[in-house]
Amino acid sequence: MNVKGFAGGVALVAAVLAAPTDAAANQFFPVQSFDFTAGQTVVGQGDWLRRATTETPALEVVSGSLSYAPGGIPASNGNSLRIQALDGEDARLPFPGGVITPADNNTYYWSAILEWDGTNAGNTSSYFAAFLGTPATGSTTFRGILRGGGDGVGNVYLGTQLFSNTSGDNPTVFASNPIPASTPVFLVIKVTEVPGERNDTSALYLFTTQAVPATEPGSPTVVSEYVTGTNTGDIQGITTTGGGIQAFSVRQFQNINWPGAWRIDEIRAGSTWESVVSDPSNVSSWSLYN
Fold this sequence. Notes:
Elements: H1 3-18, H2 22-25, E1 49-50, E2 61-62, E3 80-83, E4 91-94, E5 107-116, E6 125-132, E7 142-150, E8 156-163, E9 173-174, E10 185-192, E11 201-207, E12 222-225, E13 247-250, E14 262-270, H3 274-277
Antiparallel strand pairs: 1-4, 2-3, 3-14, 4-13, 5-10, 5-14, 6-7, 6-13, 7-8, 8-9, 10-11, 11-12
């Protein structure tokens, strides 16, 4: 037996077992399974805080978790979070490690299981989940935005937008196929810091019927990027409270014309694809940004 090799192997295994999980290593948060008290607001449970001043209707934890039937991701636990088509409470989840310093070629991923209840397909859209550049109450420095919208004839679509701006220089790009009603889907949002100014991107990977792959697909479902204009929506354009991404936000719709009610669950965030589709103890999910 190669005793030296064996001892080295033991030391390596011990180091791996002692290593921090992805949440600690890359400053993002642990998986959010909403294993909180159902029937109450998420604000004040776990590390969730109120993002805006509105308190009702509450961003409410509801009984039961969401599962993505085609598989490829860890099993769901706990409860889930309901998002309503009303001007209600919004919440934010600060990163325990604080701000992640912006740098060219950084990537930021978040994923979730999402379900639309099939009611009121509406005729407009709004954003309801994103990274947040400032953890303070009232912040609107959203990046890597998920938007939902209806076409007015019964169909609802998901899309992404790099940052919250409506001037036309940063359009929302929607997937071409509607999502099924009352059936959980899985999605990944990827934000990339592209070198240069006004050229970061937000990509949506949407899964509705296929198993989630362990490695990142070659092409996303859709990508949102700058078209024109002078707004600074890049990650490095965030200049308040230290700059960079440092929280996550869930936002309720503000108009009854937006699609019905939703549930979101199993929210993950990390710096790699693997960190948001697999167990956070996976070695390959550790951050490069320590």
